[in-house]
Amino acid sequence: MPAPENRPVSRFRKKSTFYLLALASGILTSIYVVLDDYVNFEMITNPFVFGAFEMVVGFIVTFLVVLALHIPGKGRTRLGRKFNLGYKLDGNFQKLKLPTGKTATYTLLAGIFATGATILYYYLMSKNGSSVIMPFSQFVLIYLLIGDAISDREKPVIVEIQSIAMIAFGVIIASVSGIGSDGSFTDFLLNVFMIVGPFSLFSALYIYFQKKALTTKDKQGKFYDSINLRIWTMLIITIGQVVAAAPALSKGGFSEVSNSWKIALTPVIFSMLLAFLSIVFYTRALTMGKMSIVKALSSVSVVTTFPIIGLASIWLPNIFGFGGENLVLDIVLKLSGSFLILIGVIALALSETKSILLAKAKQGFAIKVEELTRIKGIESVSFITGQYDLLINIKMRSIGKAFSLVEKSIAKLPWIDDVITFQIMKEYE
Amino acid sequence: MTVSAYIFFIVDLGKTQEVVNALREIPNIVNVAVVTGEYDIVVKIIVENLEELFHVTTEKIHMIEGISETQTSVIEKEVLKE
């Protein structure tokens, strides 16, 4: 029977599941970010103390959820394992277990970079609020694009450069109204530096190591799962947050928490449950596609944040209300910026073409498969029986690039005799 | 140890979508691609052994209306990108 990573195509297209997971993650993110903004503004104002409180509560909530995911369901999975609720969220989940070997290293690194990004998230949130954090946090996409380009060993094509430009300008337009309204220009520059620099870089490395942890097989040839990855990275983040909050806790932070924890508990639990689901969906999507495209799809949160802030501003105008006299200008700027980001990411997500090549090897020549797998754009090479010797799967940003790949790289290998190309028009995975 | 194979199809004119829908109903098929060129559809199939491959191809796939020609290539080894 098919391996779990090769699910049959009959129920959902893999692509649909991939898009759905990434988009759902984005929408859930926008809800929990607005909730965090509310608790931070109204109840626990110190960002480090709030971060530590939310992560401790969040870790306990997540741990209980993961325990609940062990509840057995009816029947058995495709591989004959007993079915549990966690399997519904991630097909690789069996039980709570510590990562081992390389996966443990990647989980630890993901946790460390996540800690850095989370500490900065709470700090920047308290300075700027959710309407600024959401668009600006999309800068991470630019790092991921560069990361994907490095891992694919190819120069960015025009659509990637266009997307980077659109996202960068979209982020600036959507954020500028919020940042410009209060605080000095130095504060503005400092915030921009923090978001574009360490915050985005830590987030990009966090995403990168999550992907590595989930796509590396252990000694038994099994993949790690997004639920276990979340709980262990969360433990590291929680420890990091508590350490970062230690000075503030000793200077009145404890009394702030003891005064507000009862009213803050419900929104924080709700926020952390949404964060858990959002991150599990996100990491599952990561195992199915490119980092930059997952991030791009989930950046729908930039657009969905504004209606949620709009709804929240009806109840809490003092926290979420857009800047008074410049209301129309503010809305126009935020919407224009958000749509620019969205168009940039959609252009990027839709700009891949896939082809299948069938190749014959010359008689008397050894097939050097590593010469093929080293070539940028080649996803896999299969030795097959029949008229042709090899089937090569390639993925490129344009048909023109696919042509160059065949003409300049594959056809020039001395042991290749003949190649025919099939362009994939539609694919069901 | 499972056996994987690619199957290449030539399909009757105007029958591609029907054939694709029928192929997607077969649980062993993990990928269906509609392509340009000499063939119309390429699928990847994973089965337990060659016996099962024989059964799936002859009893399920060859029964689909609209398929005019198939060619099956068993995968001897698969190498993913470095």
Give a description of the structure.
The complex is a heterodimer of chains A (429) and B (82). Chain A is built from 15 helices and 6 strands. With 429 residues, chain A is α+β, with helices and mostly antiparallel strands. Chain A folds into 2 domains: 14-349, no CATH class; 353-423, Alpha-Beta Plaits (2-Layer Sandwich). In chain A, the strands form 2 sheets. A 4-stranded antiparallel sheet of chain A has the order 4-5-3-6. In chain A, α6 (140-151) crosses α8. By secondary structure, chain B is α+β, with helices and mostly antiparallel strands. Chain B has a single domain (3-74), classed as Lrp/AsnC effector binding domain/regulation of amino acid metabolism (RAM) domain (Alpha-Beta Plaits), CATH 3.30.70.920. In chain B, 26% of the residues lie in helices and 45% in strands. Chain B has a 4-stranded antiparallel sheet. The longest helix of chain B has 12 residues, at 50-61. Chain B is globular, with a radius of gyration of 13 Å. The mean pLDDT of chain B is 92. Chains A and B meet through α14, β4 and β6 of A and β1, α1, β2 and β4 of B.
Task: Summarize, please.
The complex is a heterodimer of chains A (429) and B (82). Chain A has 429 residues and is an alpha+beta fold. Chain A is built from 15 helices and 6 strands.
- What is the CATH class designation of chain B? Alpha Beta
Quaternary structure:
heterodimer
Distance between the termini of chain B: 24 Å
Largest sheet of chain B: 4 strands, antiparallel
How far is the first residue's CA from the last residue's CA of chain A?
16 Å
CA-atom Rg of chain A in angstroms:
24 Å
Major beta sheet of chain A, specifics? 4 strands, antiparallel
Main sheet strand line-up of chain B = 2-3-1-4
State the helix count of chain A: 15
Average the pLDDT over all residues of chain B and give the rounded result: 92
Main interface pair? A-B, 37 and 37 residues
- Secondary structure class of chain B reads alpha+beta
Helical fraction of chain A equals 55-70%
Instruction: Specify the CATH homologous superfamily of chain B.
Output: Lrp/AsnC effector binding domain/regulation of amino acid metabolism (RAM) domain
**Share in helix of chain B:** 25-40%
What's the shape of chain B? globular
CATH topology of chain B: Alpha-Beta Plaits
Radius of gyration of chain B: 13 Å
Indicate the low-confidence ranges of chain A by residue numbers: 1-11
**Structural class, judged by helices and strands of chain A?**
alpha+beta
Number of strands of chain B: 4
